[in-house]
């Protein structure tokens, strides 16, 4: 009888999802962005619901840059900038499901945005590069996203 209890010891369980792998979809298009309507919804949701409590990014500057993205003159935005934008989308998409909002993305969209942001921002050299403001913003947004997904210790 002791063998059964040893297999199901409380120390083998985790309240958080840290022992679960982070789902990573291999086939994500790095430079794909949602339609302007979806982008505006996700961006506005982040700015209204998350940014006031966690002001990780510059609101006005980023809003101007997002408008510039859809003007047609922004050919290929920098990787770190796109990563920040995709992390905002991931957090907003997750929020829309957690808060059961009227408008929602598909249930797995947040993981697509996160996978895209991760591929754009992190590579084998990232830890050895000199940090800059965007890298710090990316790490802060990634941390917040992982916290929202129950992966607290990551």
Major pleated sheet: none
The proportion of strand residues reads under 5%
Please work out how many helical segments DSSP would assign: 6
Cα gyration radius (Å): 18 Å
Q: Tell me the structural class.
A: mainly alpha
* Cα-to-Cα separation, first versus last residue: 36 Å
Total domains, how many? 1
Q: How many E strands? A: 0
- Tell me the helix content: 40-55%
Describe the structure.
This protein has helices spanning 2-7, 36-49, 59-69, 79-98, 109-121, 133-148. With 154 residues, it is mainly alpha-helical. The chain is globular, with a radius of gyration of 18 Å. The protein has one domain (2-148). The mean pLDDT is 83. α4 (79-98) runs parallel beside α6 (133-148). It has six helices and no strands. The longest helix is centred in the middle third of the chain and has 20 residues, at 79-98.
Key traits:
single chain; 154 residues; mainly alpha; globular
